[in-house]
Amino acid sequence: MMQKEENPTYRCATGIQIKMSDLDPFAHVNNGVQCNYFDCGRSYYFESVFGRQIDWNNMDLVLVHIELDFKNPIKIHDSIVCETAIYYIGNKSVAMVQQLRCTKTNVVKTVCRSVLAGFDRQTEKSIPISEEYKKAICSYEKLDLTHN
Question: Is 100:110 a contact under the CB 8 Å cutoff?
Fold first, then answer.
């Protein structure tokens, strides 16, 4: 259940509103704030996949790894969209890639790679990714469920 991480098909995109409070002393969007942008994109992605608002207190996934590549600064007047794709689903984790892209120039500003793991919030233990999640994600991403 994979597509290429290097050139994913982004089926999900959500606009990001840049606020003055997001800026650092250099008038660029602060690196830490960009993590919040990716959180918004991640939430919107799962709402799109499942067709409903996500209650993160009951979601059986938890973010366990994140890495960011800052390619170009984001400025206050950039028109930013967060694009999100899952490119791998394993037994206990999914791998996601996201990018912040300026829609005016088509320049990718930041790329985020993350891993989410199956997690039972009651026992606080790792669990397999549910078949419901796998089917919904594979259907949304047009991934083949038979190749794991």
Answer: yes
| Predicted TM-score (pTM) of this structure | 0.91
Q: Which tens digits make up the pLDDT trace of 96-123?
A: 999 999 999 999 999 999 999 999 999 9
Residue 77 lies in a domain: yes
DSSP 147: -
d(Cα 122, Cα 59) in Å, to the nearest integer?
Answer: 11
In a domain, 92, yes or no: yes
Residue 81, judged by CB atoms within 10 A of its CB (0-12, 13-18, 19+), counts as middle
Residue 94 falls within a domain, yes or no?
Answer: yes
Give 59-111 as a 3 state SS string. Answer: CCEEEEEEEEEECCCCECCCCEEEEEEEEEECCCEEEEEEEEEECCCCCEEEE
Residues 128 and 95: their CA atoms lie apart, in Å, by: 14
DSSP state of 6: S
Decide: 84 and 45 in contact? Cβ < 8 Å: yes
The total domain count for the chain is 1
Residue 132's SS3 state is helix
Task: Specify the CATH number for the domain of residue 133.
Answer: 3.10.129.10
